[in-house]
From TrEMBL:
Record's protein name: Reverse transcriptase
Superkingdom: Eukaryota
Length: 266
């Protein structure tokens, strides 16, 4: 159950529970207690509930009846992303491409200088997919599509119109002191953000997400030795794909030696 007041709003609050009437009643009890304590009323009409398709229909009906005005949806969004990542990853993350495309189409290309385009690309277009790329690895084809849209916008090309690209996007993605424009390479930026997530999991083992991942994926192994079992979440597959990047620049402090693996650590 979550608030869908505004797409991507930081006020969205997901609540996870088992699919049962008792759990639904407990959620309503918590909501009523919150209202009584704070004096703020919760508008359930702006909230939705997503129930697994494997749940018995009778259980679904009972939960929806208990929750009253809460809408039952087949797929919801949290911070602009689908609540459930299905097998069609290209469809799930296609929303990133569409958001950037819509934003570019809204900009008036004819009245923008190159400096103006640079300002729009860096803090706006390249910043839009940051949250998604911090959690999931985007397909190379999707990164290429985003790169193509930004390159066409930079070189003032409209839909269906061809304009000469005087430099490869790879060259414009280098630093200005090296002759580029300082634009980010989408794929490398994606890997960088995922590596940062992996680093947080490593140095903050007491975080809830770290405990959850350790329990599920590497309860009896070190993070870098953790397998990728069949049916793993796309988040785990994503951060696991950049292990080699973090491991390459990682050094271990020996200390008392209790956490050192003689035959494995380098």
């Amino acid at each position: 159950m979550y608030s869908n007041k505004t797409p991507g709003s930081n006020d969205d609050s997901p609540v996870f529970c088992k699919a049962s009437s008792d759990e639904a009643s407990k959620i309503m009890e918590i909501i009523h207690q919150y209202e009584a304590t704070t004096g703020q009323l919760v508008n359930l009409k702006k909230s939705s509930i997503f129930i697994s398709r494997n749940t018995n229909q009778t259980v679904k009906d009972n939960m929806c009846h208990i929750l009253g005005d809460v809408k039952c949806v087949t797929q919801g969004k949290y911070l602009g992303l689908p609540m459930v990542i299905t097998k069609s990853k290209n469809q799930n993350f296609g929303v990133v491409r569409e958001r950037i495309k819509k934003r570019i189409m809204d900009w008036k290309c004819n009245f923008l200088s190159l400096a103006g385009r640079e300002t729009l690309i860096k803090p706006v277009a390249l910043a839009m997919p940051v949250y998604v790329m911090s959690c999931f690895k985007l397909f190379k084809s999707l990164c290429t599509e985003i790169k193509t849209m930004l390159a066409r916008f930079w070189w003032k090309a409209r839909d269906g119109e061809f304009k000469v690209h005087w430099k490869k996007w790879k060259d414009t993605a280098t630093n200005k002191d090296k002759g580029g424009m300082g634009f980010r390479d989408i794929q490398l930026f994606n890997e960088t953000l995922l590596t940062k997530q992996l680093w947080r999991i490593l140095i903050h083992p007491n975080f809830l997400v770290s405990k959850m991942l350790k329990t599920k994926y590497f309860a009896k192994a070190f993070l870098f030795d953790a397998p990728i079992p069949r049916g793993s979440s796309w988040f785990w597959k994503s951060v696991s794909s950049v292990k080699y990047l973090l491991e390459a620049g990682l050094s271990t402090r020996v200390g008392d030696g209790r956490t050192i693996h003689i035959w494995k650590d380098k």
